[in-house]
Amino acid sequence: MAALNAERKFLNGLKNMKSIILLILHFSCGLQHIIASSVLNINDLASMDRPFFDDISSRNISAVVDETAILRCRVKNKGNRTVSWMRKRDLHILTTNIYTYTGDQRFSVIHPSNSDDWDLKIEYAQARDSGIYECQVNTEPKINLAIILEITAEKELRERSSGKVYFDSKARAKILGSTEIHVKRDSTIALACSVNIHASSVLWYHGSAIVDFDSLRGGISLETEKTDIGTTSRLMLTRASLRDSGNYTCVPNAAMPASVRVHVLTGEQPAAMQTSIASATDVSIVIIIACLIISDILFIRVLNLTQRLTVHRSLS
Questions:
Q1: How far apart are CA 293 and CA 18, in angstroms?
Q2: Other beta carbons within 10 Å of 275
Q3: How far is 16 from 123, CA to CA, in rounded Å?
Q4: pTM for the complete prediction?
Q5: Contact 177, 153 (CB under 8 A)
Q6: Cβ neighbours of residue 62 closer than 8 Å, sequence gap 6 or more
Q7: Which residues make beta-bridge pairs with 1?
Q8: Do residues 240 and 208 lie in contact, with contact meaning Cβ atoms separated by under 8 Å?
Q9: Are the C-beta atoms of 183 and 265 separated by less than 8 Å?
Q10: Listed residue (132, 165, 160, 168) closest to 59, CA to CA
Q11: Residues 6+ apart with CB under 8 A from 302
């Protein structure tokens, strides 16, 4: 009788162990789903309510001498951040929010109440006002939108507008290699852009700002080569940091631009990391399933052994 009770306890223990393993399997699958959802939610929260430029206006502005030039900047989700305009030529801050910080009274900000617009107005524009201006928001890291302003004489502007077409829809830039690249931190970012015309100039943008070769970051170089069939521009950034991640756009004069997405990583590539996580999860599930199979085999063997013992005792 005692032996039968011990056998029953053993069988009940195996059944309980099987139930526990099933619970672990369900918990593991549920945890995997929660982790995947959490990653997406964290990414969504990181980008939520962060200021960004609603870049709907041209980045190249032309105006006539002695007329008013308006450089448009629309900032969404500004919050309590500050919007400033800076003249790139001398790094002079012209305005901050609605306040003007220059003695030149021709400069002011147009900001209708409760709007997202922070447009820079330059009255009685002069040729010396030509150049690059940046609309900046003091986030961390800072974001900026570069606008190129060209002030010309009325005659020159009229001749340009009535002359040949300056933009050919067949003229376009093309990124050489993949348009989605991953590089490790402290390595070199090398980007190349091929244009199928002889472009007079090629600009590179990082996000909405022109790549600044004179910035404190340093380590930025550009090489432009004229070939038999067009123009090739190569941008290099040494000692890549996380701030160098983002969208880079090759903008040739009189041709369609092309973009490439750069991811600066501290370790593995995102795809590789996702693969390793998935592999680890798959391995754990395989182990649990194997345990279930083994437990079933043990359960059947013990059951067969118990039946044999019972038959043997009845015969005895």
A1: 10
A2: 12
A3: 83
A4: 0.41
A5: no
A6: 150, 151, 152, 157
A7: none
A8: no
A9: yes
A10: 132
A11: 7, 10, 11, 14
Residue among 148, 149, 147, 135 at smallest CA distance from 52: 135
184 close to 239: Cβ distance less than 8 angstroms: no
Q: Which amino acid is at 267?
A: G
118 Cβ neighbours under 8 A, 6+ residues apart: 73, 74, 75, 83, 85, 97, 109, 110, 111, 135
Q: Which residues pair with 189 in a beta bridge?
A: 237
Place of tokens 């690059």: 132
* Single-letter residue type at 241: S
Helices 2-47 and 270-315, axial angle in degrees (round to 10): 170
pLDDT in tens, the chain (316 residues): 555 565 566 556 656 665 666 666 556 555 555 554 444 444 444 445 788 988 767 788 888 888 889 999 999 988 889 999 999 888 899 999 989 988 888 999 999 988 899 999 999 888 889 899 999 998 888 898 998 998 887 644 455 455 444 455 578 889 998 888 899 999 999 999 999 988 878 888 888 788 877 778 888 988 888 888 889 999 999 999 998 998 898 888 778 888 898 999 886 545 444 444 444 455 556 566 665 666 666 666 656 666 666 655 666 5
Residue 145 · residue 73 · CB < 8 Å: yes
* Encoded amino acid at 86, one letter: M
